[in-house]
Structures
1.
Amino acid sequence: MHREGFEPPTTWFEARYSIRLSYRCKVFEKMLPENTPKVNCSFQEERIHSLLMLIHTQAIVLRTIRYSDTQEIHTLFTEELGLISMLTKIGKKERTPPLFEGAFTLRKGKSFFQLVDAKQTICHGPIRDTLASIQSAFKLFHYILKSQMQLKAAPALYHLFSAFLRQIPLVKNPLALQSVFLAKLLFHEGHLDDTHPLLPLLATLKSFKELDLLPVTPAHLDAIEEIFTLVYDHA
């Protein structure tokens, strides 16, 4: 017991490593399948540790760059972890190009997350049908990449981002969609300028049906992007 009373509940992270230190091989042997060959203790511990450290999250691939002749680095915006970098082998059966959205199973590596599995849950293929849709999508990608930090979870923003991507092929005024998303992002991050004549209206828009009714012009979007740039260039 602590001086203040009963000891608070131990977190699973602490308990797992306490077990590891206290019981070592015997506990880990019991956790493995019956037919597992007898191997040294450290190998069994690493195997169990690897299984326990799998991460399951929804994610959207924002960009992909060539890392080597055999590997690519993908930047993902995830529901559980925010922005992360994921390393994959070129030619791996799970193809994850930009605009891929799905359920990812990842393992944390030393420098990058490693892809274990990825299953597409939402198809953003129609975005590729027109140049205007592609440009709108990559505008939204830019806003996320510039405003979000690595490993800073923002599940509400993730779902907002996913919803706006699904609307891109459907709207008639892409400038309105980009402006509303940017206003809502600024509001989410606590940077909304209440004195701006248009931002509060855009940030509180409740229906996508209203997008095409908004009188948003290129000059309006430029002004909102200028506010966004000022905020994040000095962040």
2.
Amino acid sequence: MYTEETLKDLRNAIEQEGSLYLLFLKHVQNIEFYVKRRGSVDPVRIWRARGTRSLERPQTLPNFFTALQEREDSFVRYLLEIDSESTSERTMKKDRRRQSFLIGQHAKFEGRLGNVGDAIKCFPLVGAALPLTEEGSHDPLVFCSLPLPNNVRSGLGVHVNGCFAINDERSSLRTRTRDSTSNDTNIWWNEELIGGLLPSLLIRMIRHARKVECFHMSFNNVYLCV
């Protein structure tokens, strides 16, 4: 059962980092949070976030998803702007914020990566979100479409997304420990995504972003990638 305190904690968490939920979702581009007070007829919206993608060519993203369905190696990058609005229940004053990110996604099906992905039912895909504004500069997190519980940090200057192999509690990535076997497929998979596919993605993001003026990337932003 949710108590009033846990609901307050949930609301605070959503207001602080809820906009990040939109970074790597394919179809969801709008999130709203409502509160219905005892005795009231209609719920009141107290928070919302909306994501808007900007691409050089409108078909770029649909073509990327088509390539994924056809198991073709593919890469895409685009600008994502997230507008959020928080409303005070007491004063009804609105606080509006805008966050901008450079998003990149990279899939690779060739070789062992594609075969292992089929075996463990994971997709050979990684993504990265580089904050372009101070409003978006949270401590970078690790995602499996949504942020992992307990706010697992990426250790990089970018948010990292991937179809990772995670533990039974679904709270962290499977990593090599003293008890791990050398042929643990799930651990190999994560290491390959992070150590092989992710660096390739970051390099491509830097190269493309420096060529495209609309991204307005400073050298500081570029260094954050590495």
3.
Amino acid sequence: MERRSQHLILNRLNLPGTPIRESDLRKGKFESINGVGATELDALEALRPGEMIKIIKREVEPYIDEDLEERYAEKMEEAHGELNEELYDEVREEIGEVEEIREGLGEFLDDKYKKLEEITEKSNRRKQERN
């Protein structure tokens, strides 16, 4: 809120002013910008309850971006997607190596199971031959 609009609001609301002490070093500059005297903000709330919040809302509203949260969520989702792609690209080679190891392990185990079956069959045949 610009100082001019502050001054106009205070004048329009007919709030009581208070003289500024002569010993206050800020008096000259303040009064050159805002006029003579000062008004305490609690006077506004005391004389016109709820008016301060209305003024604040009216003055702040033009600066509120209603779409900000939605745009933020979209950007975060986009960033997560890009990050996931980058991470996948970084580990793709390692994933391939792990898959090769898994396939090799599967073949190794298949081979060992076949040998175990052969040994078991041989053992069973020998038992049958003895009986």
